[in-house]
Design a protein that fits this description.
By secondary structure, the protein is an alpha/beta fold. It has 13 helices and eight strands.
Length: 288
């Protein structure tokens, strides 16, 4: 299955939810019913603020083909440049899909011929270590796991100081899931980032893992994690299980942080590089 086909399949729930509204907008030639177009965006969980701004720009432009103009507007919002750095620290709340996304990214990068090393800093949850080690065995990637009960920042220090880390093209670091409202855990994350940046200055980035099914709550998570670690990229997971795919547009419009990967299924191949054009094309029903 092609990349486009897998994105299209992964966004089917969002697209199906939008189809009825699309028919109302376009079936009778009501191509300039901007209120219905705004409702369409709200149904996809774009959010009222961003949806209102998009529709205001369309009203001002008065395009001949409103549908095409809307798609181009969304592609422009999502098209954000971002640099990939060699040390990537996965952060996010419990259950967002951090460890699973890390494992799938291992599979993808190994397939691209990259030399990888994985560091596990979830030193208080044995199940987290076991899951991470299982992914590393499955993908053939060496890993360093912090000692149970140790300081997570010490684990990142030891891992980044190892010979295996120095030989790797890319280092992926897993962290414990944490509620974005827990100040102590967010301070722990800040410490992990400080230690990493001291050892590898200019080479570290935080990737925020967001579950698409949380919809607009993902915005609140982004607000809090930005205060602690300033994520430079987003991985949006579980898009195949939700009708809220438009939250990607809300995130990009407000924060100007690129979405780097999307999760569209449970398989090893189902973490896909993000393509604004293919994403937008896959959001909308065909033949409208």
């Amino acid at each position: 299955m092609s990349l486009m086909a897998r994105i299209h399949e992964g966004l089917s729930k969002t697209r199906d939810k939008m189809a009825q509204a699309f028919q109302a907008v376009f079936a009778s030639g009501a191509h300039r019913d901007y209120e219905l177009l705004e409702e369409l965006l709200l149904l996809a969980d774009v959010g009222p603020g961003v949806a209102g701004e998009i529709i205001a720009r369309l009203r001002e432009q008065k395009p001949q083909d409103v549908f095409l103009a809307l798609k181009e507007e969304l592609v422009e919002i999502l098209n954000i440049d971002g640099e990939d750095k060699p040390v990537r620290i996965f952060v996010g709340i419990n259950g967002s899909g951090k460890t699973t996304s890390l494992g799938k990214l291992c599979h993808r990068l190994v397939g691209e011929g990259k030399e990888l090393f994985v560091i596990g800093t979830d030193t208080f949850r044995a199940a987290g270590d076991m899951q991470l080690e299982a992914w590393c065995r499955r993908t053939g990637v060496p890993c360093y796991i912090g000692k149970p009960g140790s300081d997570p920042a010490a684990a990142i220090f030891d891992g980044l100081s190892s010979k295996q880390a120095s030989n790797a093209d890319i280092i992926l670091c897993d962290t414990a899931g944490r509620l974005h409202s827990n100040k102590n855990l967010m301070q722990e994350l800040e410490k992990i980032m400080r230690v990493s940046n001291k050892l590898r200055p200019g080479e570290v980035e935080a990737l925020l893992i967001l579950d698409a099914a949380t919809g607009q709550n993902a915005m609140q998570q982004m607000d809090i994690f930005r205060q602690a670690v300033q994520p430079s990229g987003i991985i949006l997971t579980k898009l195949d299980g939700t009708a809220k795919g438009g939250v990607a547009i809300a995130l990009a419009a407000k924060y100007q942080v690129p979405i780097k990967y999307i999760g569209v299924g449970e398989g090893l191949e189902d973490l896909l590089p993000f393509s604004p054009r293919e994403y937008v094309d896959s959001l909308f029903p065909e033949n409208v």
